[in-house]
Amino acid sequence: MRRLNRKKTLSLVKELDAFPKVPESYVETSASRGTVSLLAFSIMGLLTVMEFLVYRDTWMRYEYEVDKDFSSKLRLNIDITVAMRCQYVGADVLDLAETMVTSSEGLVYEPVVFDLSPQQRQWQRMLQKIQNRLQEEISLQDLLFKSAMKSSVTALPPREDSPAEPPSACRIHGHLDINKVAGNFHITVGKAIPHPRGHAHLAALVSHDSYNFSHRIDHLSFGELLPGIINPLDGTEKIAVDSNHMYQYFITIVPTKLNTRKVHCDTHQFSVSERERVINHATGSHGVSGIFMKYDISSLMVTVTEDHMPFWKFLVRLCGIIGGIFTTTGMIHGLAEFFVDIFCCRFRLGVYRRHEDGPTARISSNNFVSEPPQPDPL
Question: How far apart are CA 96 and CA 367, in angstroms?
Answer without folding.
Answer: 122
